[in-house]
């Protein structure tokens, strides 16, 4: 959650984020060296009211999601907390700044230079990821663990920090890197079946000044960049908080459930969640990590509202609709008594037309459905 209050000469955002960690982030968005020089002169007075702040640079002109998010994230660090943003392409201005993102043609973390446009740049996140990084990815690579550790209130070396660091990159950051670097999601020479302009990079892009806007001034452009930072930053923090508060506890539940799977059924292919949680991504990752074979085919859990039990077929991969072993075709589309009669299992509720999920009024009935489906 962020609150905007306009004060001159600064525009100030109050970010309510990372639990009780509140940051007030003044933005000084400068497009020319004259303003920079004037500000530097004010620092020389030594006034405690105008104590010098770190200055982070990025380019002016049209902006993208990566530098908007990178500028937001770097201000969440101890080193650049409360930093000013300087928007310029002037090499002399950029040279005097404490950090520079997405401009300048240099990647040198020792000097906090994080550009990715220069010839020969091939930096990736590592840990099995091969997507070339954008400026946001570079900031996350070097500062992501610090941000996550603050949210968890633990040391950066804590194992949970590492798990979330990788998960946030996989589920949130990598797409921003790939889109900014023009990397297709799929290897295909066929045109896409539909257009998706709803992702974060597209929404940030639409915040740029429209060509029909009569006011194309640097001030108006900088105001648009502030909105882009707020949008990208809020979604980043949402992702971090989700992984801390929901994803990480769910991983523990799924891991314990996997360890006990053969007490449910000797095949080891049926999983029972005694408490529902987001399980899909964890299941795939833990199966690979623990070298589980054969893989799980069905997951049972209780619907919190109806109190009925569900049997869900595990998909072939996290991003596919197809199931490893869908519920039998002769059950699909049937409900209640008709389904109970066809399956010879009392208490049946439904089986979806695609066979990816079904239901029974009791746990024993759901387990019987899963066991029967394994044999069909």
Automatic annotation (TrEMBL):
Q: Name any GO cellular component annotation.
A: cytoplasm
Q: Which residues fall in a coiled-coil region?
A: none
Lineage top rank: taxon: Eukaryota
Give one Pfam family, short name only.
MYG1_exonuc
InterPro entries associated with the record: MYG1_exonuclease (IPR003226)
UniProt similarity note: Belongs to the MYG1 family.
Which protein, by its recorded name, is this? Metal-dependent protein hydrolase
Q: Which organism is it from?
A: Clitoria ternatea (Butterfly pea)
Q: What is the lineage of its organism?
A: Eukaryota, Viridiplantae, Streptophyta, Embryophyta, Tracheophyta
